[in-house]
Amino acid sequence: MFIRKNKNRSGSISIQIIRKIRGRNKVIKTIGCAYTQREEELLKIIARDEIEKIEGRQSLFIEAEDLVIDAFVENIENHQIQIAGPQIVLGKIYEEIGYNKIIDDDFFKSLVICRIVYPGSKNKTVKYFKRHLNKEVSVYSVYRFLDKFHSRYKEAIEYQTYEHTRKILKGRIGAVFYDMTTLYFESSEEDELRIAGYSKDGKNQHPQIMMGLLVAENGYPLCYEIFEGNKAETKTLLPVLEKFSQKLKIDKPIVIADAALLSQKNIDHLTEAGYEFILGGRIKNENEQIKKKILTLEIRENQPKEIRHINGRLIVSFSTKRKKKDFQNRQKGLARLEKKVKNGRLTKDNINNKGYNKYLELKGKASVAINYEKFEADKYWDGLKGYITNTTLSKSDVIAEYQNLWLIEKAFRISKTDLRIRPIFHRIINRIETHICICFTAYAVYKEFERLIEENHLRLSIEKAVEEIKDIHQLTYMLPKSKQTKTKLLKLNDIQNQIIKII
Q1: Which of 206, 245, 276, 317 has its CA 20 to 30 A from that of 373?
Q2: Is residue 442 domain-shared with residue 353, that is, in the same domain?
Q3: Dihedral in degrees, nearest 10, Cα atoms 404, 407, 409, 410
Q4: So what's the pLDDT on residue 471?
């Protein structure tokens, strides 16, 4: 006889005892289903013990203590072993941030933790509650909670998040980073919030909403807002900043945002409202006088230059790495255009300034050709990057602050991959808003977990840490005489012990 493991459609592993009879495998006994590696190992131990029993290979002189332990293990059922790590670790972080002070609701807490360890649809959430928390929860009870939650707690959650971020930054939020993303829906229905619009992800056919996120240094979250799906990015920055300042009554930080949010109206409003800013500059869109001046500057690596600008200062830097990347991107864009021209797939309607279409021109009455002189002229811009600012920071400090903008890109990446904020399957506005609120709270807990790992010099990634805590189990059992129900954590490995210590 031997032990076989089968992967089930649900993702679980079945542990079975198999005997080969006349060349065919016969299932003698299915020991149980494992959802984690530790459960799998435990079921294999039980299976080996069972094989010894069946084959009569057990010692004839078993000690009484062994018999007690053997009988105990034999009667362990799957539901007695629960995943405890997420509730212990992430639950403690959730409380340390202070969310339990404003939301006296374990259901919300469990939804936030589930979003980090088992992100997915509400059906998956229900399975998480049943399998790992021993709670019978229906999809409809989750929906009812989503319906009633959002309007009462969003601002309180944002305020508590801001207070925690301010605390870990030692009371000072000197700069804030802002960006937008689109969240699409697996539905074709539109309403006043879900509207089809331009999508960075090529999901233009799907209704969507826009989400604006404001984070502080190191990507620590501050607040968020959601907008109609067809809202222009340039029209979202100021509403978010104004709400943030009014709600929290704080000194105005330096605002850092990318070139997509760079409109003259935004810059004028930021200046009038007394904000300092660092914005990505679209140097090739500047007037001819400034463009000529930029190209006459001798800009070398780590030696940025500065030009006076209508909006303050225009700082221009050069990077060899960026130059190589810009050149490669232009070559790829040109190759795609050449292929389309050769195949006759382009018409005069394609002649515009969108992307690499700017290299197209009309030849004759209807023929589209590539203007190679324009393509060659663009090589002088390879490697150059502009920054517009009204701060008094040094050129190198302006560039360093702007380069931290990748933190908000990382925040969106975490939200979209690790927390799976999209696609959104809800259609009722309250549910959509609560779903995003849960994801925002989960992101704050996730970031604090990451900070504790780094601060305590644990040599593991946040992703690995999340996997480790998912493998922390507890056993619930009843004492035979007193009938008391007891719960014990199964023995932790070294990494799990380190994680428990830091929280």
Answers
A1: 317
A2: no
A3: 150
A4: 92
- To which residue do tokens 């070559």 refer? 331
Residues 332 and 308 in one domain: no
- Do residue 159 and residue 245 come from a single domain? yes
Residue recorded with tokens 């936030």: 112
Clarify whether residues 418 and 279 are in a common domain: yes
Q: Hey, how many other C-beta atoms are within 10 angstroms of the C-beta on 181? A: 23
Q: What is the spatial distance between Cα 186 and Cα 199, in angstroms, rounded to a whole number? A: 14
Domain limits for position 405: 154-317+387-453
Is residue 191 domain-shared with residue 278, that is, in the same domain? yes
Q: Return the amino acid letter for 216.
A: A
Range 93-131 burial, b when 16+ CB lie within 10 A, else e: bbeebbbbeebeeeebbbbbbbbbbbbeebeebbbbbeb
In terms of DSSP H, where are the helices of 98-184?
Answer: 99-102, 106-117, 122-133, 139-168
Q: What is the mean pLDDT of each run of 10 residues along the chain (503 residues)?
A: 88 90 88 82 83 69 60 76 92 96 89 88 80 81 80 87 94 87 57 42 59 88 83 80 77 85 84 91 92 94 95 96 95 90 80 82 79 92 96 95 83 64 57 86 95 95 94 85 84 95 92
Q: Do both 188 and 291 map to the same domain?
A: yes
